[in-house]
Structures are given as structure tokens and as C-alpha cells.
């Protein structure tokens, strides 16, 4: 494939935007080469600036679960835009989206909208601290909760891709309140809780991790976390920015059968516009300003365009919940096909999957946490990534990211993708 125009646009972008991108993982640093500049997208396909068509497995990192430029979402945005795009005053549509989200997700009574997953997780932790009167939090190595200071401690996603797990600019004072444990390791969490007894406000986790590849929690781990939190008066925060409205109407809480105390959202809930949210039972949410003392605000929070996109998206998912099953089946089909193709070549690999999230790791060992994910063969991953891209298949440009399937993908697309793996020389 030819990427002449993309490369020229990248060179120009680098003059004015740090690294040429507004979010680091887009820059292809991990896999080498220049990033692709997208011109437009429809359904399961991206069309780049050189006229190439790519089958998309990223879905804008999750939001476009029904495919790109999904008509009901686009129509809702256009209709709203004609009536004004921001007021700084309450609007009815905020309540409509809140009501729908609360009806779909178990265990939440109230929800506050923000503009990104980062803001949602940052605010959820502030609320947990304000509610419990405690300072420390526990997070898991390789989990990504956005780029706010407290979370840039062995974070996943772009933060590990670039080998700078502890970003300069995060003060020691902030870092000392973030305790780290390995994913799927309940004993480590218990040890931390004992050593910091009475000081921990919250444990925050990606209930199915998607920022170190896709990593599924063991039953005993996730149940054990819930029991431990209840016993110790610690709030369990499920960061469902990726899993919310993707693993089912009720997200990971429903899929795993675990109730969290605070849940954060992003990605799908905005239908492709910038929306994040955090939610909990009334008793906890009432601690937020203006009802309570925990401050949180946003000029563009609950923005009418963003709310209309989110409402159209969630309405589709709520009225057609078969979509989640259909997506999971497509993902299983892809998993099986890629697995067979790699086995036939004798390439050591692991494929992790949950619902419509899946990741391919070039290693012999089961991938259950950040350390095992990091053992993947990077050189082979890069060959795999570029070999697929050259055949028109757009996979995440980092071994630490999950694929996110969208419902516009057809079985013909999946077969084309599997055939592309068969063609690779790994
Ligand atoms: C993407 C992501 C975030 C951050 O969301 P942004 O909208 O990029 O700020 C937080 N948590 C998880 C699990 C994510 O996948």
C-alpha cells in the first residue's frame, strides 16, 4: 500500500503538534513507521488520505461499537447542532441520557457527566477520598485510568508503550498515595491493605483489562477484591471506560456478576463525541457538589451534541441488546481463525478474549498480568502489525492494546482478516 500523503501530512503535523499527534499511541512509535491519516470512515472501514481502505479493529479505541458514521448517531448530532452547541445551562437531554444509563447499568442511582475517561476516573477517586476521608488508592500495574497524575504509576496503554511508566511531572507527593499491585494477584492486594490499614479510600481496576492487551480477571480474584473492599470499608471502583456498554448493557459489572461502588464510563457512552461519566449509589453521589462538599465541574460537561450522540448510541444498544451477542460471536470467530493460522505456522502465541475485546500476544506463557504481557515478542508483533496493515487490516499499533470489534464488521471482513494472517511471513 502507498502512504505518501499520510507521511507528508505527518511531517507537516510534527512542525506544529508535539510528535505530530494529540494522543501519543497514535504516533506508531511502538511499531515504527509513520501513522496513517484518516480521511473518513463508514461502517467497519477507514479510508485514508492515500485512498486506501482499511478494515478497522480499533473503533476509535472503543466508542464506535456500531461502526463508523452510524446513521442514528450522526442524525442526532446534526439535529442538535442546529439548535446551538453549548449553553452552560441545564438541558433536558442530560437527564434523558442519565436516566437511560442508570436503567441499563446495575447498582447505580445517579451519574455525573464529564468530557473524557480521564476526568471520570480522576473525579471518581476524588469522590472516593471525600466519601471515605482516606487518601490512598490501590491500582494495578498495566491498568490505564487516563492521564491524571495519580494514575501515571505503571499505567498501561501509551504510558507503557513508551517505556515511561512514571511520567516526569508527577510529584512524589502524589505518587506516594498510589499503591501498586499485580493484576490477578489477590495476595498482593491483601498485603498492601494490611500494611496500610485504615488509609485506603479505593481500589480502582479495569474489571476486564484492555490496556495491556485484553486480560480477564480470574473469578477468585475479582470476587476476592469485592469481599476485601467490603470488609475493610474500601470503595471498589470499576473503570468501565472501555467495558461499559461494550461487554453488555450493564458492562463488566453485569458480565462478571460483581457490584462495584463507583463506576466510570467513557468511549461508548459518548457515541464518538467526548463524554465520560462516573456513577454510584445515591448515598455516595450525594457527596458531590452542589449537594455535597466534593467539588467537580465542567464548562462543557453534559454538552448537548455529546449528549445527543450518547443518547442515540445507548438507545440503539438498549433496544437491540442482541448486538452484544453478535459481537462476541464475531470476536470468537476471529480468535479461532487467527489462532489456527498462527498455530499452523508454528508461531508461539496467546490470544485473550472477553466479549468483543481480544488481543494477540506472541509468547508461550499465559498472559494474566502486566509482567506476562510484557514478555511478548515485540519484533514479531511489529512484523505482524505492519504485515496486516499492508493487507488493509488496521490493528492497534501496540502490543499493549486490545482490539475492539464493531458490529459493522461482516464475516467476510473477518475471513479477509484471517486470510491476511495466513499470508504473513512471521
Ligand atoms: C481510554 C481509557 C481511559 C481514559 O479515557 P480518555 O477518554 O482517553 O481520557 C480510562 N480508563 C480506561 C480503562 C480506558 O480505556
Write the layout of secondary structure elements.
Blueprint: H1 4-16, E1 38-42, E2 45-48, E3 53-56, H2 71-81, H3 92-104, E4 110-114, H4 117-132, E5 136-140, H5 158-161, H6 172-175, E6 178-181, H7 186-195, E7 200-205, H8 219-232, E8 235-239, H9 251-256, E9 262-265, E10 276-280, H10 282-285, H11 304-319, H12 322-344, E11 350-354, E12 357-361, H13 370-374, H14 378-389, E13 393-394, E14 403-404, H15 411-423
Parallel strand pairs: 3-13, 5-6, 5-7, 7-8, 8-9
Antiparallel strand pairs: 1-2, 2-3, 4-10, 9-10, 11-12, 12-14
Top keywords for this entry?
single chain; 426 residues; Aspartate Aminotransferase, domain 1; 2 domains; seven-stranded mixed beta sheet; four-stranded mixed beta sheet; 14 strands; globular; binds pyridoxal-5'-phosphate
Amino acid at each position: 500500500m502507498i502512504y505518501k500523503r499520510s507521511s507528508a501530512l505527518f511531517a507537516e503535523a510534527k512542525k506544529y503538534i508535539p510528535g505530530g499527534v494529540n494522543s501519543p499511541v497514535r504516533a506508531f512509535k511502538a511499531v515504527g513507521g509513520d501513522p496513517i491519516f484518516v480521511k473518513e470512515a463508514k461502517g467497519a472501514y477507514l479510508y485514508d488520505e492515500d485512498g486506501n481502505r482499511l478494515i478497522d479493529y480499533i473503533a476509535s479505541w472503543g466508542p464506535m461499537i456500531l461502526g463508523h458514521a452510524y446513521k442514528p448517531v450522526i442524525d442526532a448530532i446534526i439535529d442538535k447542532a442546529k439548535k446551538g452547541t453549548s449553553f452552560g445551562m441545564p438541558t433536558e437531554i442530560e437527564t434523558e441520557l442519565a436516566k437511560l444509563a442508570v436503567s441499563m447499568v446495575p447498582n447505580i442511582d445517579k451519574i455525573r457527566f464529564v468530557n473524557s475517561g480521564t476526568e471520570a476516573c480522576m473525579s471518581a477517586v476524588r469522590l472516593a477520598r471525600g466519601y471515605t476521608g482516606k487518601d490512598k488508592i490501590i491500582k494495578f500495574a498495566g491498568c490505564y485510568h487516563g492521564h491524571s497524575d495519580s494514575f501515571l504509576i505503571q499505567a498501561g496503554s501509551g504510558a507503557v508503550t513508551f517505556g515511561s511508566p512514571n511520567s516526569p511531572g508527577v510529584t512524589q507527593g502524589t505518587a506516594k498515595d498510589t499503591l501498586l499491585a499485580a493484576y490477578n494477584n489477590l495476595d498482593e492486594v491483601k498485603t498492601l491493605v494490611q500494611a496500610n490499614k485504615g488509609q485506603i479510600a479505593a481500589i480502582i481496576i479495569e474489571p476486564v483489562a484492555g490496556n495491556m492487551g485484553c486480560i480477564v480477571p480470574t473469578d477468585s480474584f475479582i470476587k476476592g477484591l469485592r469481599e476485601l473492599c467490603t470488609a475493610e470499608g474500601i470503595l471498589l471502583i470499576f473503570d468501565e471506560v472501555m467495558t461499559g456498554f461494550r461487554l453488555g448493557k450493564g458492562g463488566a459489572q453485569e458480565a462478571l456478576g460483581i457490584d462495584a461502588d463507583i463506576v466510570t464510563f467513557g468511549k461508548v457512552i459518548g457515541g464518538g463525541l467526548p463524554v465520560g461519566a462516573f456513577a454510584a449509589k445515591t448515598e455516595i453521589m450525594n457527596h458531590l457538589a452542589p449537594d455535597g462538599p466534593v467539588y467537580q465541574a465542567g464548562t462543557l460537561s453534559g454538552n448537548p451534541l455529546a449528549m445527543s450522540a450518547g443518547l442515540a448510541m445507548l438507545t440503539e444498544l438498549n433496544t437491540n441488546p442482541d448486538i452484544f451477542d453478535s459481537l462476541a460471536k464475531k470476536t470468537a470467530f476471529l480468535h479461532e481463525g487467527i489462532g489456527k493460522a498462527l498455530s499452523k505456522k508454528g508461531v508461539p502465541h496467546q490470544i485473550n478474549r472477553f466479549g468483543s475485546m481480544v488481543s494477540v500476544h506472541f509468547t508461550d506463557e499465559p498472559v494474566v498480568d502486566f509482567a506476562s504481557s510484557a514478555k511478548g515478542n515485540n519484533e514479531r508483533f511489529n512484523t505482524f502489525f505492519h504485515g496486516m496493515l499492508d493487507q488493509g487490516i488496521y490493528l492497534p499499533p501496540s502490543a499493549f492494546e486490545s482490539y475492539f470489534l464493531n458490529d459493522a464488521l461482516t464475516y467476510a471482513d473477518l475471513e479477509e482478516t484471517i486470510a491476511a494472517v495466513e499470508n504473513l511471513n512471521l
